[in-house]
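Example protein
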Amino acid sequence: MHTLLLALHILCAILFLGPVTVAVSGFGAQAWKAQEGSDLARGTARIFHKITATYGVLSVLVPAIGVALMFTDPGLYWKQGRFHASIVLSVIAWILLIVVIIPRQKRMLGALRLLDEGEQEEAEADGEATVTDWASAKKQLSIMGGIFCLLWVIIAILMFTNF
């Protein structure tokens, strides 16, 4: 069971965190170009948002499987603080993604009128489809995305370092 869970944990990290990290990193620049009129960037921004939202939600499997993995060999995993720190950091990264990054991406897409029809109407009705300062919005999203990506780099280092 340990080997199966370890393989699933690593595969989920690669399959879900890789794409969401790239999408989070590239979204701001594409939204900026879309705001300036690039049709290619409009499509890319939509795709990056869909990847962020879908893969971001699925990425919760990584810490969930990690916790399950800790129960396969309690003597090994429960004694090492790096695993506990990794779980805490991954939860922080996931909350940052769900609470901050995805809503800001959605706001920018709403301002560009790139959301699906129902979502667009809802965002406009709630007043969440406007961006008054694109430079500031892009900068803030880039900072949050950078923190998100840095957390996963730190977690990867913790996973492969034995100190």
About this structure: The two ends are 25 Å apart (CA to CA). Residues 2-160 form one domain. The CA atoms of residues 93 and 148 lie 5 Å apart. DSSP finds seven helices and no strands in the chain.
